[in-house]
Amino acid sequence: MCNVGMVVARRENLALLERTKLKRAEFVVFERGDRESLREYVSGRGIAFSAHCPLFIPGEYPENPLLACIIDIDEERRRRAVALVRETMEDGAAMGAEYAVAHIQRPVHFSGDNLKGITARDVMDVAGTSCAELADLSRETGIPVLIENLFDNPLFHSAGSYLELLRDFPSLGFCLDIGHLGVDSRNFGFDFMEFVRLLAPHTRAAHLQNSNASEKGYRTRHWKAPVHPSQRPEDGWLDVPAIMRTLLESNIECRFNFEGWMDYYPSRETAIEGIRWASGLYEEIRNELMRKTEADADGRRGAATDSSA
Fold first, then answer.
1. Between 20 and 30 A from 206 (CA), which of 51, 78, 100, 252?
2. Which among 147, 213, 207, 203 is positioned nearest to 182, based on CA atoms?
3. pLDDT at 253 over 60
4. How many CA atoms lie within 13 A of 241 on its CB side?
């Protein structure tokens, strides 16, 4: 099973998936009229895939459906978001998706909400309500659901907040978006890699895109850059090899899906070059860890044989 793929938004970007020769995808914001053609595409190529909410653009939705987040202090909006996740889970399950992904915290700068009087405990209570509903939906639909970190919510961003939810609802998993986390770690002043290490046991999938706060205008552009070997940590970029190793050390079957604005670089070939680099890096790290696991197992078997002699 291939564990490296790409987030594919809209039908026209299937061409990029073909061009990279990746055998995994995470589909999002397809037109509802594309349902059958997408089903045929998946079955015809035999690729593994996940469904990102919204898998299909809803017919009527009062805002950008990508802003449907399960933690929302507006109860009507929260219920609407959970209902949209349900649609994605049901559609994904019907098509054979491995899991569904849902955004968790609503970015405050997109919502325009006045958070005066709202506490972090209030937000955690809302999160608990939504996660309980998602856990029920997962049992009902038979498809696992992973909650993905978005960014820019001052009342929900710490590793402790995520860990509280994932411990309360162990059937849910975590989808780490490293670009989003890069924004939050810089905005709220926490250690990026410490967050990754703490959440790694719960991380079943990751979105690979990079961010750089040292770049001018990073809040509007440089948080969604396709990964590339030229992105050096000493220049302010996140350390992609270290992130991949940390996640694979905790879960050797962690899925990785490339994301980012593919026109970030002057040439799309640069983004594709980065995908090939990171795909090779994944294979290198995973093979190294598998060899170590096998060697450790051999050592334990040998020790057991010696002790029984």
1. 78
2. 213
3. yes
4. 11
**pLDDT tens digit sequence for 281-301:** 999 999 999 999 888 777 777
pLDDT tens sequence across 128-179: 999 999 999 999 999 999 999 998 899 999 999 999 999 999 999 999 999 9
Q: DSSP strand E in 10-131: where?
A: 24-28, 48-52, 100-103
Q: Please, which residues bridge with residue 255 across strands?
A: 205
Residues 108, 195, 296: CA angle, nearest 5 degrees? 150
Give the predicted TM-score (pTM) of the model. Answer: 0.94
CA distances to 19, 28, 286 from 273, rounded to whole Å, are 12, 23, 20
Q: Which two tokens stand for residue 103?
A: 């955004």
DSSP E strand stretches across the chain: 4-9, 24-28, 48-52, 100-103, 145-148, 173-177, 203-208, 255-258
Query: Which structure tokens are listed for 14?
Result: 């299937």
